[in-house]
Amino acid sequence: xxTVWESEEVGLLSFSLDGEPILGxxxxxxxxxxxxxxxxxxxxxxxxxxxxxxxxxxxxxPGINIASFAPARYGQAExxxxxxxxxxxxxxxxxxH
Length: 97
Known about the structure:
Blueprint: E1 22-25, E2 33-36, H1 42-57, H2 76-83
Antiparallel strand pairs: 1-2
């Protein structure tokens, strides 16, 4: 009683260039798998992302087609240009998964 809420913070929100998650093997880096850029939906996506990455790590084909989320969909030039940007969260992709 009488306590004032001053602020709140959350973890870092990550966004990809096209607004879709990044999930799968990283080209040119053998045995490196990533699952990131889920915006603020990480808690919802982490269980299935972990399962799909575990299937890949075990040498299996994932239970669903994840090709559209592959890191390989980006070229080096796109990645370099994206990383050179600074973007405020309010200006980032507004769509959430």
